[in-house]
Amino acid sequence: MERIFITGTNRGIGLEVTRQYLQLDDTRIFATARQPEVATELQALAATYPERLTVIPLEVTDETAIREAARLVAEQVDGLDILINNAAINPPEKTQTLDGITVETMLDVLRVNTAAPLMIVKALLGLLRQGNNPRIANISSEMGSLAARTYGADYAYCTSKAALNMVTRGLAADLRRDTITVIALDPGWVQTDMGSPDADLTPQESARGIRSVIDGLTPADSGAFLRWDGGSHPW
Ligand SMILES: NC(=O)c1ccc[n+]([C@@H]2O[C@H](COP(=O)([O-])OP(=O)(O)OC[C@H]3O[C@@H](n4cnc5c(N)ncnc54)[C@H](OP(=O)(O)O)[C@@H]3O)[C@@H](O)[C@H]2O)c1
Questions:
Q1: Dihedral angle at the C-alpha atoms of 44, 6, 17, 8, nearest 10 degrees?
Q2: Is the pTM of this model over 0.70?
């Protein structure tokens, strides 16, 4: 039985990854949403798989809520095998241009996309240490790649994902002695609210890739920046 914790599962990639893991028989999922009461599709999954899906309320910037989420998980399982830090924001383009960007936008996005994943790892570390081949996938982005940054604008989002990549490298080093594997994972350009209908991949294709990459991870992969198709991404 694989025990999996995923953030931001109300919609988009997080919802589809949750759905696909539930279609396997041997999974126990803790799926978070900031407003479970309006997470209609997630609640429908919880009704279908009441024994294997627990929906947990989590606004990822709320440190009290993070601790409470960890406590709820620890009541039900004695270890976690996979953590997927998926929740993120990408505010409207005009608020992230050189003209439009503000300190508030920069810090709001860093709080959600960079600081929260690190705080979630801290809160779940005890459970991850008890996991089988424990793995942490921080959902990053091509837009977090310094090498690929040959364009302007998108200041907050790009910076937050580059910083998440740096968090990933630090965690990989800190957690090597615990044999917890930590990677940054680019899900591709995906047809979600964030990615737009014009994107290359369906959520189904991206989620299949994400699961397959996580499935194949070993401690030797720790600290890598991987793509949804298993290739390595330039930093
Ligand atoms: N789509 C793409 O093309 C693409 C490309 C590269 C990387 N990514 C990354 O892939 C991940 C998933 O993206 P997506 O396309 O599925 O995005 P999405 O459709 O916009 O969904 C984002 C999810 O994150 C949740 N969320 C946002 N802020 C939160 C907060 N403060 N606390 C808790 N949950 C929060 C949202 O909750 P609500 O539903 O309550 O708002 C939603 O469930 C993100 O890390 C994103 O940066 C996406």
A1: 70
A2: yes
